Every structure is written in structure tokens, then in C-alpha cells.
Amino acid sequence: MGAGAHPLYRHDDSAVHRAPAEVKVVCLLVFVLAVVATPREVFWPFAVYALIVVGIWHLARIPLRWVLPRMLIEAPFLVLAVLLPFAEGGERIDVAGVALSVSGLWAAWGIVIKGTLGVAAALTVAATTSTTELPTALGRLGVPAIATSVLVLMIRYVDLLTAEAGRMRMARISRGDSPRVLHQAGAIAKGIGALFLRSYERGERVYVAMLSRGFDGNAPDLAVIGAPPRAVASQWVIVMAPAAAAVIVSASAWVLR
């Protein structure tokens, strides 16, 4: 992995990649809040939100074949949404001969559409923002230094832990383990526990190494060593345009519902 990269980062030189990271983070937050605040009974705003996200993908040159597999991270929430129409009470409606809860259907729809749009927007920011930009961006937004440090270290070491989990799995298979056999669940659980302990011990060693190098819990402003300068007013106006459009759409949905 190249310097400054993380598993979700997509190397390119588009206008979205060059946008200041702190503005992209704020834009993401406002966009997601606008989506969540939209009444689920009104359908057209979600189509507009989807068009906004797809438009940004086009501007950032992010292909669908790259985005769609990574959106599977929301699969557990989709499973929950599928179960809601069967588990909720209240008024029911027949769908293909099956009695489903009306409130459960609305709740499932809200989880699916809002969750999908939120994941898509978050992936867009992740795909266009490198780890070298994050500490400075979060620091400029007033995020506590300790939280910034934890986030950056988590992103830095997620690839290392993934690779170690892969090596442990390969070692089990080479010793006759079959991951698809149910009775091997105990060995898999023990492997997960061992990985957790190794991760904890690695974190302790990294922390001690950081202290020995003068770490005091504060994340420095990396602008002094080559990070991009602070965003100017014109950049805030341009980059925040999608979020502003989402806020207008959300407000319109409440007025026109």
C-alpha cells in the first residue's frame, strides 16, 4: 500500500481528491444528517440524493464496479430490515399471501434507503481522502487529539491485522482445518481470541514506542511538514454544494409532504 493510502482509498487526481479534507468531512456529516432527517414516506428526495452521490462518483472518476462490492458492509443492517416487517406489530397488509406489518415495512424502507445512501456517501469521502490528510483535517475541525490519534492508528494497522488473520487462517487449513465444517467453529473462535490478544499486545508496544519518542497525546498540525493549507472561503462554498442541496431537498420534503 502506498504512502497515505488505506484500504478504501482510490488513487486519482480528480477535483474531489484535491478538495480540502476538512470540508469533505463536514460535507459528509451535513449530507448524512439531511438524509436521516428526510421523512421516509416521501420517495422523491431519496432519488435526488442518489443522483447527487452518483454525480460525485462521476466527478471523482469512481466506477460502480469499485463501489458496489464495498457497500456490502451494510449487509447485516439489510438483514435486520428484512426481518422488521415480520416482527413488528400493528396494522398488517398482505403481500404475495404473506401478512406484513405496515410500520415494519416503513421502518425497513427507511433503514435500507438511508443506510445505503449514508454508506455510499461515506465511501465517496474515504475513496478520495488519504490518511495523511485526516489528522490535519480532524484537528482543524476541533476533534480531540486523542480521538484523532486512535482513528489514524486504526486505519494504519487494519491492513496489518487483516494480513495476520489471513496467515492464521492459512496455518489452520494447512493443518487439516476446514472452515466450512461446523465443528471447526471452536478453532475459529480461538483464532479470533488469539488475534485480539496479539492486537492488544501490539497496541501496547506501539504506545510505548510512541512515548519513547516524545508523544504527549497531541496530534501535530501536519501543515508544517507538507499537508495542504487550510481551506479558503471559495473552497468551502464549492465543496459544500452537495450538502447544501441535500439540506434544501430535505426541507422541501417536509414542506411538500
Automatic annotation (TrEMBL):
Annotated NCBIfam families: ECF_T_CbiQ
GO cellular component, one term: ATP-binding cassette (ABC) transporter complex
Protein name per UniProt: Cobalt ABC transporter permease
Membrane topology per record: Multi-pass membrane protein
Transmembrane feature ranges: 21-37, 43-60, 67-86, 106-126, 138-158, 236-256
Record bears the keyword Nuclease: no
Record organism: Mycobacterium lehmannii
Keywords linked to the UniProt accession: Cell membrane, Membrane, Transmembrane, Transmembrane helix
Coiled coil (UniProt feature): none
Domain of life: Bacteria
InterPro entries: ABC/ECF_trnsptr_transmembrane (IPR003339), ECF_CbiQ (IPR012809), ECF_transporter_component (IPR051611)
GO terms classed as biological process: cobalt ion transport
Location(s) in or outside the cell: Cell membrane
